[in-house]
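pasting for ref
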Amino acid sequence: MGKKFGSFFTLICLLGLLVSIVTPAYAHKVNIFAYAEEGKVFTESYFPDGRKVIDGKVEVYDSQENKLLEGKTNKEGLFDFKIPKQDDLKIVLIATMGHKNSFVISAAELAGDEDEGSIDTSSTANTEKETSVKKTSARRRHAPKKEPLPMAGVLGGLGFIFGLTALILQFTSKKK
């Protein structure tokens, strides 16, 4: 019975190892969001757990992959710049330890042709302070959301650990 259990345990652990190999890697994920407003592009950068990307390198490219500018995110994960060119812009975020992502903002968005997230400031009833609050809330429409830890990743990691343990035990038990 001991030998059958050991073989079954090894099989289960190897299946767990297989699941861990197939599962996508979430370890190097980072998020970036960008939008245009009043002649500027604003970016927000954060990790899946909600932490802000501090001092992340931001590079901006045009549609022909020419680098137009670069900068760094601040303590709040924000970076903004004047629109350098009316073209599709690819904004690349390079954070710590190999974290990298990009966001493309279209020339139409830069020109203000799209209404998504636009704010009506024509009403004379709005005070300057109210307008500022509305703009800030529109900018934060993609605020960081904590992403749950994928169960397949957890189970795959545990399977890997058990599989490695089973292999070690199997090799050490044959020596006796």
